[in-house]
């Protein structure tokens, strides 16, 4: 739930008025905190000790609200802990407080005397608990769709509809893969499960928040050990828009947690039974992305070309045998002599059999290129310039790269 949801709740909407900080209206609310406790009233108390982040902070005690300087200092400390919003009784909001909240984009609500705090806390806490329950239920449904071998489609559709999600149209999966860097800031341990859980939860919120800003109110997201999976309407987002959204999410995640992130997106499918295919395609896309030399962050299965066909073949021995039959002798020659023959031929094919262009790309002399190509032709005993042979060799190198990458992964 975010601050905008709070404003739209019928039971409390008339008793709350947004005074300032409208730009932060999409901040997530995790719980309520009443900052009128005895400790908070003490001048030497550090309120940060009781703030965990994303709280709707309620302040009604006049001994706090009448001292503008002290109140803003107190809120500044809580703001550093990323509170969600501030709520103050009507008649107790100063211009200075409103100005500060606008400056830091912290939603500031004015509470009407007609809205009793006990009612407010019950309504909001109940809504938060229900939303958490709904979120967990959506995760269970997505997990069932992706991993269960026996799907009860009618039951899943009914459960999803109850949770506000219509699964009757086309859907596709995206997968955010998280890669920790060698060194993390502040010596954070890559084995610290608490840190990892916090990170995955935060990433899930970033994902939901970004898609929500583009009109998708309820998104099915499933955090995993080193990834985050999402299921989205296939026809709701174009490739260009989806790329923009995911690149924005990736940028925020990498900046916040100093990790490397890539996104793989599967094809859209109409039936629930096929959504798992989209998930598998997203996984294959990320595996194949390691072959690419570019610096892209977002990869679509539909744009993989020949690799999307190779990924459909589950028989690894069949693929390895194909490579062996086409370029096996060349691979052995390289292993024995370290002659760079495979690299030379692959570059030659990539430059449409233009030896001069390939030599320039490899930074070798033309005579060296000619010598290597003569050696390659003798080993392969085939006409490389023949279109059929050319295509077979290109495919063999593509499979070789794919299989090597899968092995490393």
Index terms:
409 residues; alpha/beta; Udp-n-acetylmuramoylalanyl-d-glutamate--2,6- Diaminopimelate Ligase, Chain: A, domain 1; Alpha-Beta Plaits; Arc Repressor Mutant, subunit A; 3 domains; 5-stranded mixed sheet; 17 helices; 54% helix; 13% strand; elongated; CdaR_GGDEF
What is the rounded Rg? 29 Å
Query: Mind describing the biggest β-sheet?
Result: 5 strands, mixed
Distance between the termini: 38 Å
Number of helices: 17
Within the largest sheet, what's the order of strands? 1-5-4-3-2
CATH superfamily (homologous) name of the largest domain? Reverse transcriptase/Diguanylate cyclase domain
Number of separate domains: 3
Q: CATH first level of the largest domain: which class?
A: Alpha Beta
Low-confidence stretches: none
Given the C-alpha coordinates, what overall shape results? elongated
Class from helix and strand fractions:
alpha/beta
**Mean model confidence by pLDDT:** 86
Family: Belongs to the CdaR family.
Domain CdaR GGDEF-like: 154-288
Domain Purine catabolism PurC-like: 5-128
InterPro entries: CdaR-like_regulators, CdaR_GGDEF, PucR_C-HTH_dom, PucR_C-HTH_sf, PucR_dom
